[in-house]
Amino acid sequence: MTSNPTPRDHNKASVLDVVLSHAPLTRNQLIELTGLSKATVSRAVEELRADGFVVDGGMDEVTGRGRRSTYLDLPGTTGHVAGISFGAQTTGVLVTDLRGREVHHLAVPTADHQEVEDAARWLVDLIAEAADSAQGPLRQIVAAVPGRVRGGTEIFGPAESMKIFEGSGLHRAIQDLVDAPVLLDSDANAALLGILTNDATISNAALFSVSTILNFASCTEHELARGNTPTFGDIGVLSSGAGNEILDELLSTRGLLRIARKRGLELERIEDLWLEPQPEGPRAEVLEAFTTAIVTAVSVVAVTLDPESVYFVGRLRPLVDEVVPEVRRRLERSLPAVPEIRTVPHLIGISTAQGAVYACLTMAQERLHEAVLGARRQGQAAEQSPPAF
Question: What would the mean pLDDT of 276-281 be, rounded to a whole number?
Fold first, then answer.
């Protein structure tokens, strides 16, 4: 028998939401954060405890003559999620419980796979390694890739070395190997989601991931913007304003390395451009072109999206730091209002995986919330398993 959720169901779901966001916490803290009565919170806690969604997590310290309080927590058996950063050079996996607490993470060089199925098995094996000590079922996987993604399944415009993964084959191959929902997203979206999760004050912003390829993300009213076609976010095809080069050539490690070598710089890797001494003239030429490209990219989003802030992440971030003062000076001469330009510390492989985990947690927690609303007990004596989600 099913029926619409009652106020009691909603109270129970509200208590669970707070536990998911703040555990471990005491009952008094639950009462304060939910605004519900002591009796309502106690009843909801006992029902959630019976469902296996709440456990006692220890006692707090006694101060004065007060009684010690029991902390309530989310048990590990509720499950875990996995966020993946599947990069052209580095792959990172982060596994957390449904409270967002890390179980384990790892970052390894990306293997060169010639078949999509082999890559999927490799990724699933990495998840299993990172989740070795996790409890409960795997609830959600989100894999962030250097390319644009539509509908959580199809990859467009991936890095040249990852062209094999274009389309929806990677999604299908992973989904066939795991008993959990799987979604793909762009590395730029994952990076911006991580920033949004850590700073609730951000409203409108744009982000450039300047790494193996140039990737772009934006948000409006604190929500990621997603287009209807693969063209959305393909800002790299625009002219950079520096010669005949497009933005992707100057704002990606692959393209910038090629351009630097054309200018006579003998670089083994792009990091040598700022970590090793280089001939002053050729380096100045490269930096001038790079600066112009940054100015163009920020100008485009400033006049079309009106963001308050523009973020840069990825392997080229140290070079962005070097040219930002000049970028600001040029923008101030051409724009009536210049957005704040920020570079974000970025741990290759892990920071993007963390953003993917935030996406996992949102989806898993929403499903758990809905499962609690839809699984009201029918009778006090009836045996019933915990809500499935």
Answer: 94
